[in-house]
Structures are given as C-alpha cells and as structure tokens.
Amino acid sequence: MNVFPKWLLPAVVLLLIIPGSCRKESDPAKVFSSSEDEYLAALELVNEKQKNIYFQHLPGREENRLVREMNGERLHLAVLHASTSPTALSTVTNSCDLIPRQDVKAVYDALNPGMKKTNLGKAIKKHVDNKTVLVGDLLPHFEGVGLDGKPFDWSVTAGKRVLLIYEGWGWIKRSTHFWFKDLLAATDRDSLAVVTYVYADSMADLRKRVKSFQLDPYLVISDLKGKEGPLDKRMGIRGIPTYYYTDRQGRIRCIIAGFDENLFTYYTGLSPKWGENWTDDND
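The structure corresponding to this sequence follows.
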C-alpha cells in the first residue's frame, strides 16, 4: 500500500501523478466533483482496481506495492473532495496520521466557516496545529551520542531512506529482533539507514542496553536523558516502539506505533523477504 505515492504537493494544486501501472484505466483521482455521489463512485473505481490486483496473484512484493498505490489514490481522492463531501472529510479526519501535514492544512483552509466549526473541522485543525512530528515533516536530526560517545553524525543518513526505531527493544518479541536483522541483511546500507534510539542514563547504561538487546548492527543514538525524556514529547511518541520511515529527502512517509509484521510491511513496503519496495528513486 503506497501511503504517499508521488503526491506530496499541497492538495490545492489539484494534480495527481498516477503510477504507470494504473494509467491504462480511467483515472478516478481526476474526477473533481462537488458531489458526494460522484466521490463515492470514484472511490468505488479505486476499490475495484484493488480487487483486480488480488485476483492476479502477483508476487508479494509487487502486490504490496500496487496495493499501497491504491491506498494512496484513496487518500488523495479524500483530500481533493473533503471540502464538498462529508464522507471524504470524515476519511481525512480519520486518516490524518497517514496524510502529510500540508495536505491536511489545505483541506482545513478549503472548508467553509460552518464546516470549520464542526467536530470534524475542529479535529483537523487540532491535527494541523500539533507541534509534534507528523507525516510530511522532516525527521528531526536531534542531538545525541553514538556508541563511541561522540555526537551522532546524521550526515551518514544523507540521501538515504531512514527507518528510525524509537526505543521498545525490551518490549518486542525475540522473533521481531530476528525480523529486523533479516531486514538489514535484505537491504542496502547505501539506500536505507536503520537508526535506533535507545533510552539510557549514561554511556555505561547505553552500552549495557545495546549489548543486552544485540543492537550492534544498527546505527545507535541516545540523548542520555533516561526513560521518557523530553525528546518523547517532541517526537510525539505514540507507543513503544514507534517507527518513523522517511523518503530520501528525510521527509516522513509514515509513523507506526507498535510492531505488527503485516501492518509494518503494508505501510512501509519493507520486508526481509524482499528488502525495500519503492520504485520512485527520485522520492
């Protein structure tokens, strides 16, 4: 499921670049309708396209990519129609954590004064005004140290997609540890940087925790301020662990709380079975 496929422009631009695999069919995202019925009809076209993907019995990697693209089309349709369709507005409100902040803001700005005063409008405004890190924001290069005790050098992530694993190693299953190590083995370090933030009170504590959880394969960073430090609030921690996945420009594509193997792959496209699953190298 491509949660954010090539449409990270403000919704007011009203343009959509449809993935090549979908161009042969009619493009529902170009149906700029003010009608609830027409929005639902366009949405149904996308749903039918996704059903056809399942019927093809494609390899897992290809199916995952196409399904993510369909979800991206659905979210984009909702953004385009939110100011005129109650159903689309509800979808945006319920999917704020999957839509870039600037697109959610564009939806709110397009609402009439009456809609802004509704519960849906207020919920969107609250999300836009959120001061923590959201999808569409740049991943903060917060200060911290690595295992050598020196300031962590974020330049090692430049030009790469980044997966930041924010704590939680003491809570996840042993099988999940192996899952991520297999993911490391299946991906290219020149393409994907996997960084793990670790709670620690001191360098000795950091090294002890890294050794205990066998985190040596990862890029490790800690601010040495212990559990639930001030960084938690800035990052908008939703649970332990929380995962932040970015594009090559460092812009956050998705934020995931907790680990479920299927959902994680569903949203990120990352899997130890195939490594990365993005085809847009210019993202």
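Strands lie at 161-166, 192-197, 219-221, 242-246, 252-257.
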